[in-house]
Write a structure and sequence with these properties.
Elements: H1 2-15, H2 17-45, E1 57-65, E2 70-73, E3 76-77, H3 80-87, E4 91-96, E5 98-106, E6 109-118, H4 122-125, E7 130-132, E8 144-148, H5 149-156, E9 165-170, E10 173-183, E11 196-199, H6 206-209, E12 216-218, E13 220-224, H7 230-236, H8 238-244, H9 246-254, E14 258-265, H10 285-313, H11 316-324, H12 329-366, H13 378-404, H14 408-412, H15 422-455, E15 465-469, H16 477-485, E16 491-497, E17 513-518, E18 521-530, H17 534-538, E19 542-545, E20 558-562, H18 563-569, E21 578-579, E22 587-593, E23 608-612, E24 620-625, H19 630-644, E25 653-654, H20 655-661, H21 664-698, H22 700-708, H23 713-747, H24 758-785, H25 788-794
Parallel strand pairs: 6-11, 8-10, 18-23, 20-22
Antiparallel strand pairs: 1-2, 1-13, 1-14, 3-12, 4-13, 5-6, 5-9, 7-10, 8-11, 9-10, 15-24, 15-25, 16-24, 17-18, 19-22, 20-23, 21-22
Membrane topology: Multi-pass membrane protein
Transmembrane segments: 20-42, 284-305, 340-359, 379-401, 428-447, 672-697, 724-744, 756-778
InterPro entries: ABC3_permease_C, MacB_PCD, Macrolide_Exporter_MacB
């Protein structure tokens, strides 16, 4: 019986090629988009899910609560790992993790590998299986390393890697290390990525931090007993804080503050902004993907329903004949649902083809890394199948049920009575345009914020300054660059800094917050170590005093502060004020610079202290250029840097590129909303066109009578359009507060942001009305121009 229904359904669809094509294209496009968005959300939610001990592994962080601030940090002190394992019940394993891009050479070839310096417990805690070597013996010695399959293929080609010796650059010195094992390639949904593992004791600064409880440097993970929860561990570690963080607690208590150690579950680190392995994505981002997917599928289903009902009007003779010959309602319902099932099935197959073709472009444009290999998960396949069946029932079930319940007498008279479903029809139109208007409004506001970010004054020269990461460079790199670049006429000045401005090509950013007492009250400030000519190179405005100068030998104990720091000190004239920031040598203020955005516009400007130390504390070189050919200048500077530092891994970049790179997630939001809005508008217009066809068909007699009585074409078009336009106006009223709420919440993530103006929603509404009017007018004009004799004769 079911086979018979499907055969009849196939014949009917072949007769209605236009109807079938429009429905299949609309539904398949929506399914493709929904599939891509859902896979993106699934990937973000399943980060680090493959670890067998994942539910018992936590990253530790400190929370320092003061009178007016809360500071969080994931850098932990070196001796804490061993202390927790020894003194806290329930701690099974611990590992410190230090990430570094490590120069490696084997034979005559040089490589740059992403290395993780870890403890011996690492492989027992995390599930990174070995394909060669023994897990129990690997990393037991300080001179051992583990490499991945991909790294082994690059280094050794066809050679057996285990037992081979490679040289790695640690702290500027080449040291031989032995490959003890080969690990399987790290899954792309792992927060911990590496090409090479070596012991934590090989960290360049290990000797300096060993045994120190006042030098927090690296992340720390613990594996707890299954019976111990994160909350129970946090209570158990309180005595450790009071026992070993004595000096830190003394400083904090001056501010009437507290210090606690908290936990972050391994599976939460990817979307938790407090984690060291935070992806930079908002926790709402995966939900946004699911919501957009649901919206797109929803309007596609609405479109499917509208087209199905509009098509049923042209099949009144068939429906009436079937009913008069004794067809039961259930049989008619199954027949029409079979057609809907075939349409959805073909749409689903076509959507898979679209997904395979579009996936590389999708990943490139939106910055994702989605792969169809995710479908190896049987639960994901089951979820996709369930979603398909649900969509089929929703999209095909309602039209089939509606047609099956028609009165046989009314059908034989050619009156399907579908106009009684106007409430449902109008509701569907409103829902479609609410979605479209929300997406248009959100896209506009996101674009405004991005434009504001791009044009906002940062308080420093970002256009003419080049940033170079000092990676693997000799200690005299900055001095050598000054000497070499002095011969280039386009170079104006050169300086160095501990931290970058924006996000450079090395992908690194950070800050350093310090607290100290000033006249008996606690003071908190950001601290940046800089070199001579920092203010000159960045065009920072000196509002009081002076910048660091080689003409003053005492500047090694001097600081330059910003206006907010001066305000925090509460001194009318801060020049000459002494600050005890290290409890050893007093630092005196020599200058005040105008506040500038040394961090993202998401954050407010904090108090800032700039200090000077030896060149080993610097992480970046800044070079100010004055030229009409910045690309050529960048190339010359890059070549000079490569000569000075042959081990340089990352390229130079202009600071304006760095600042824009910080907002790549917002740019991704904009692209996603814009694409979603365009697709929603297209599918909504298809559905609106289908409804217009249905309504015009119902009102043929009315249109004919009006034309006979002298109604003009424009009058008829306006009459037929106004009901639809009224629905779009209702959608504008509903969508505007919804869009305002979501964008207001989103903008709260920026300390510096645009205001949401009323005219944004007016423009979105007018655009939606215009699109709807054009769509409806295509059918309205056709109906108004039709010969009234034809419609009246039919009656």
């Amino acid at each position: 019986m079911l086979t018979s229904y499907l055969k009849i359904a196939w014949r009917n669809l072949r007769k209605q090629k236009v109807f079938a094509t429009v429905n299949i294209l609309g539904m398949s496009t929506a399914l493709c988009v929904a599939l891509l968005l859902s896979l993106t959300a699934y990937r973000e939610w399943t980060y680090d899910n493959f670890h067998e001990n994942g539910n018992q592994i936590y990253q530790l962080m400190t929370e320092e609560h003061g009178s007016f601030h809360t500071k969080k940090g994931t850098s932990m002190v070196e001796p804490l790992a061993a202390t927790l394992k020894k003194e806290v019940p329930g701690v099974v394993r611990t590992t410190r993790i230090g990430e570094v891009n490590m120069p490696v050479r084997y034979g005559a070839n040089h490589y740059y590998l992403e290395a993780q310096m870890v403890d011996a417990d690492f492989l027992q805690m995390f599930t990174f299986p070995l394909v060669a070597g023994n897990k129990q013996d690997a990393l037991q010695q300080l001179n051992q390393v583990i490499i991945t399959q991909k790294t082994a293929a690059s280094l050794f080609k066809q050679e057996e890697p285990v037992g081979k010796t490679i040289e790695v650059n640690l702290g500027g010195k080449w040291q031989p290390l032995i490959v003890s094992a080969v690990a399987a390639n790290v899954p792309d949904n792992s927060g911990l990525q590496f090409d090479l593992l070596t012991r934590f004791e090989n960290a360049p600064d290990y000797v300096e931090i060993k045994g120190k409880w006042d030098a927090a440097s690296y992340p720390l993970f613990v594996q707890l007993d299954p019976a111990v929860t994160g909350a129970l561990f946090e209570r158990s570690v309180i005595p450790i804080v009071h026992k070993y963080y004595v000096e830190k607690l003394t400083d904090i208590k001056k501010d009437e503050g507290t210090l606690v150690i908290k936990t972050i579950g391994l599976k939460d680190t990817h979307l938790n902004p407090d984690s060291s392995y935070y992806s930079g994505l908002n926790q709402f981002y995966p939900w946004l993907m699911v919501i957009l997917a649901t919206m797109i599928i929803g309007i596609a289903c609405i479109n499917f329903i509208n087209l199905s009902i509009a098509r049923a009007f042209g099949r009144s003779s068939e429906i009436g004949l079937r009913k008069s010959l004794g067809a039961m309602d259930s049989q008619l319902m199954i027949q029409f649902w079979s057609e809907a099932f075939l349409l959805c099935f073909f749409s689903f197959l076509l959507s898979i083809v679209f997904t395979v073709l579009v996936l590389p472009y999708y990943n490139r444009v939106f910055g994702h890394d989605v792969a169809l290999s995710l479908f190896h998960n049987p639960w994901l396949l089951l979820g996709a199948l369930t979603a398909f069946l649900t969509i089929t029932l929703l999209a095909g079930g309602y039209p089939a049920w509606k047609v099956a319940r028609l009165n046989i007498v009314q059908v034989l008279k050619g009156k399907l009575g579908l106009s009684k479903s106007s409430t449902m029809r109008n509701g569907l139109i409103v829902v479609q345009f609410v979605v479209a208007i929300v997406l248009i409004s959100c896209t506009t506001i996101i674009w405004q914020q991005l434009n504001f970010i791009q044009s906002a004054s940062l308080g420093y020269n970002a256009i003419q300054v080049i940033s170079i990461p000092i990676d693997n460079a000799p200690s005299n790199a900055l001095a050598a660059m000054r000497n070499s670049l002095a011969q280039l006429p386009e170079v104006q000045s050169v300086t160095g800094s501990m931290l970058n401005l924006g996000l450079g090509k090395d992908g690194s950013s950070g800050n350093w917050t310090r607290g100290f007492d000033y006249k008996g009250r606690p003071v908190s400030t950001q601290n940046i170590i800089v070199d001579y000519d920092y203010a000159k190179t960045l065009d920072l405005k000196i509002v009081a005093g002076r910048d660091f100068s080689r003409n003053y030998g005492t500047d090694s104990t001097a600081v330059v502060i910003n206006e907010l720091m001066a305000k925090q000190l509460g001194e009318k004239d801060p020049i000459g004020v002494e600050l005890m920031m290290n409890d050893k040598v007093p630092l005196h203020v020599i200058g005040v610079v105008k506040d500038y955005h040394f961090e993202s516009l998401r954050k407010k400007i904090d108090p800032l202290v700039m200090t000077m130390k030896d060149a080993s504390s610097l992480g970046y070189i800044f070079i100010k250029v004055q030229t009409n050919n910045p690309v050529n200048a960048l190339k010359k500077i890059q070549q000079t840097w490569r000569r000075i530092n042959p081990l340089a891994e990352h390229d130079a970049s202009f600071l304006d590129e760095n600042t824009q790179r910080m907002y790549r997630h917002e740019q991704r939001f904009s692209k996603i909303f814009m694409s979603g809005a365009l697709l929603a508008i297209i599918i909504s217009c298809m559905g609106l066109f289908a409804i217009a066809v249905l309504v015009m068909a119902h009102r043929q007699k009315e249109i004919g009578v009006r034309k006979v009585l002298g109604a003009s074409v424009s009058g008829i078009v306006l009459l037929l359009s106004k009901d639809f336009l009224r629905l779009v106006l209702v959608a504008v009223v509903i969508a505007s507060p919804v869009a305002w709420y979501f964008m207001h919440r989103w903008l709260q993530g920026f300390e510096f942001r645009v205001n949401i103006h009323w005219w944004v929603f007016v423009i979105a509404g007018v655009l939606a009305i215009c699109i709807a009017f054009v769509t409806i007018s295509l059918q309205s004009i056709k109906a108004a121009l039709a010969n009234p004799v034809n419609s009246l004769n039919r009656e």
